[in-house]
Amino acid sequence: MPNPEKTEAVQNKCQEARPLDAFDRKILGELAVDAGLSYAELGSRAGLSAPAVHERVKRLRATGRIRGTVAVLDGPTTGKPFLAFVHVDSTGWGKTQELLALSELPEVEEIHSVAGDTCMLLKVRCASSRALEGLLARLYALPSVKATRSYVVLSTFLERTPQAEITEALESTDLSSLASR
Amino acid sequence: MPNPEKTEAVQNKCQEARPLDAFDRKILGELAVDAGLSYAELGSRAGLSAPAVHERVKRLRATGRIRGTVAVLDGPTTGKPFLAFVHVDSTGWGKTQELLALSELPEVEEIHSVAGDTCMLLKVRCASSRALEGLLARLYALPSVKATRSYVVLSTFLERTPQAEITEALESTDLSSLASR
DNA sequence: TTGAAGAAAGGAATGTCATTCGGAGCAATC
DNA sequence: GATTGCTCCGAATGACATTCCTTTCTTCAA
């Protein structure tokens, strides 16, 4: 009979699924806000030395927790003041391949398949309403696209990449207390 | 009578709205994909020297074209496998202030006000469906929130930050050619 | 309990790169 | 035609990333 702990250890090794200790999460949290921090500064905030932080960051990158490091561009001042979310109803499954071709357009920032009364959800940022119109025209040019609903953004109050912190309280919400609503 | 060119020059100076030449856009494009590039590498790709690139990047940061540099975290492997878009119908204008308080939750990544059959649009990434439920509970706890519609993401095919490139063709789409559809 | 092995952290050294400085080319202005 | 301002490049400096090595702690086995 295999030793459960040893088996788990092996799995962790193979899947590289070590469960992120407090140091890791602190580092991730800081880097998700500002990746320009030096390892020394990062270390002093996390309570580690620079080489230790470096080692952890290297591991976080290798295991895919950190996807990459990017400069966040400002839409309006870089020529794309129009932001919209487009819901796409398409006929048939497996037709999503056509939509994925839109990834080539730099205006398309996100493509998700979603559950709900729609099939696909696109996040699109472009130069003008004219360009949005042109993009919708391309959408409707696809045979599988049945209908779209666009939600043009008027104001953006918050926009950021995934954060490291997790709000534990959300999972322990006592919904029964809301039953009286 | 004021000299138009001079006036424009002054405006550019004041608004710091210089129109981004090809070098700037190339640099922005590269940095939006990988901000870890050295200035030397960046320079060789753009056809400039390292100091020249450095100067431009500094200016792009100062003028707000580059909002910041961040590490892109992977949702699933950092403990947040659930992604959803939540449409919020709220009663009355100016009540958005309540919703903005949700910015404090690291699970809330985006908050937009949109035109369409809904008022607010949230992008939410959390640990579990239980957490999503807890977040919706918080939403409904706000007096102004009338209804919500959630679109749970099943698969994400593309997800990136704003890109520098602009597809000119989108703005020159001949919509009259689509009239026959 | 003791010994051995693995993992991880810290200190110091090295190499790379960011950053700065000075000079040159170029355009626009008076 | 001289001047001012801007941007580029090459070289020098300084900071920082990266590596190496030692130490410590934990874990597993005897």
Tell me what the structure shows.
2 copies of one chain form a homodimer. The first copy, chain A, is an alpha+beta fold. Chain A is 35% helix and 26% strand. Chain A has 6 helices and 5 strands. In chain A, strands 3-4-2-5 form a 4-stranded antiparallel sheet. In chain A, helix 3 packs across helix 4. The interface between A and B is large, with 89 and 89 residues. Strand 5 of chain A pairs antiparallel with strand 3 of chain B. Chain A binds a DNA duplex (30 and 30 nucleotides) through helix 4.
Outline the secondary-structure elements.
The structure is a homodimer of 181-residue chains.
Chain A: H1 4-15, H2 22-33, H3 39-46, H4 50-62, E1 66-73, E2 82-90, H5 96-100, E3 108-115, E4 120-126, H6 129-141, E5 145-159
Antiparallel strand pairs in A: 2-4, 2-5, 3-4
Helix pairs in contact in A: 2-3, 3-4
The structure holds a DNA duplex (30 and 30 nucleotides).
Please state the oligomeric state of the protein chains shown. Answer: homodimer
* DSSP helix fraction of chain A: 25-40%
Rg of chain A, nearest Å? 22 Å
Largest two-chain interface = A-B, 89 and 89 residues
Q: What's the end-to-end separation of chain A, in Å?
A: 53 Å
Q: What do the pLDDT scores of chain A average to?
A: 87
Tell how many strands the DSSP assignment of chain A holds. Answer: 5
Strand content of chain A: 25-35%
Question: What class, by secondary structure content of chain A?
Answer: alpha+beta
Which blocks of ≥5 consecutive residues of chain A have pLDDT under 50?
Answer: 1-16
Spatially, the strands of the biggest sheet of chain A line up as: 3-4-2-5
Shape of chain A: elongated
Q: Please work out how many helical segments of chain A DSSP would assign.
A: 6
Largest sheet features of chain A: 4 strands, antiparallel
- The H-and-E topology of chain A, N to C, reads as HHHHEEHEEHE
